Amino acid sequence: MEATAQHDEAARTEALRGAERMALNLLDAIEDAGFIQAGRTEREIELDIRALAREKFGIERDWHKRIVRAGINTLSTAADNPPIRTVEDDDIVFLDLGPVLEEWEADVGRSYAVGPNPQKHALCRDLPRQFDIVKRHFEENPEISGAELYAFACDSARKAGWKFGGKIAGHIVAEFPHARIPGVKQLHHVSPENPDPMRNLDANGRVRHWILEIHLVSPDGAFGGFYERLLEG
């Protein structure tokens, strides 16, 4: 039975990684298509992404809404619904996509500086760096809780000269929909409300797989950026 369980967990892990590879390929295709440009609205970009995802990758559903945020809207979190903005000449844009591959959830985010603003380009460069720093801290601390990793992410952002803009710094992903996994939902988040070790098994006795979200905000609170992907691997 133990060998079977290990095989099942290995298959789950590989399926989630496969879903992420597909989602990252989608991000690359979006860049190649040139969707993110000044003068285009967030909604126009989002509709183009939906069409591209369906036509090129066969993606028919997403486990969360497709998020395109520009300018001041990059301060908003996923639950917010700010007024639709048009990308400006010297702007910053981020994408947060949650496509489903067969029955497996992916969740990826990436940011783009539109124009020459050096601080916005610096933020886009620092997002994956902060991801790697927080990921390494998770790997080096096997008993770390969701609250402790969130606190570390906030402190690391501050040391790098940014504010941490997210109410959470990640969440679990699984077979679609992970929202139906039983248990206290706060324990599925990297947040101050999760005191449990992240490596605890879920309510079904399975390994929990985590997405790490890095949402950084400029010191003056004028704009932000976003980056996310699987915490493992």
Give an account of the 3D structure.
The chain contains four helices and nine strands, in the order ααβββββααββββ. The protein is an alpha+beta fold and 233 residues long. Strands 6, 7, 8 and 9 form a four-stranded antiparallel β-sheet that branches. Strand 3 and strand 4 form a beta hairpin.
Topology:
Blueprint: H1 2-33, H2 42-57, E1 67-70, E2 91-97, E3 100-101, E4 104-105, E5 108-114, H3 118-140, H4 146-159, E6 163-164, E7 170-173, E8 209-217, E9 224-230
Antiparallel strand pairs: 1-2, 2-5, 3-4, 6-8, 7-8, 8-9
What descriptive keywords fit this protein?
233 residues, globular, three-stranded antiparallel sheet, 4 helices
Q: Which consecutive residue ranges, at least 5 long each, have pLDDT under 50?
A: none
The tally of strands reads 9
Residue fraction in strands: 15-25%
Number of separate helices: 4
Chain-averaged pLDDT = 95
Broad structural category: alpha+beta
How far apart the termini lie comes to: 25 Å
Helix share of residues?
25-40%
Main sheet attributes: strand count, strand direction, barrel closure: 4 strands, antiparallel
Encode the helix/strand succession as letters.
HHEEEEEHHEEEE
Rg to the nearest angstrom? Answer: 18 Å
The coarse silhouette is globular
Q: Short summary of the structure?
A:
By secondary structure, this protein is α+β, with helices and mostly antiparallel strands. The protein has four helices and nine strands. The protein has helices at about 1-35, 40-55, 120-140, 145-160, and strands spanning about 65-70, 90-95, 100, 105, 110-115, 165, 170-175, 210-215, 225-230.
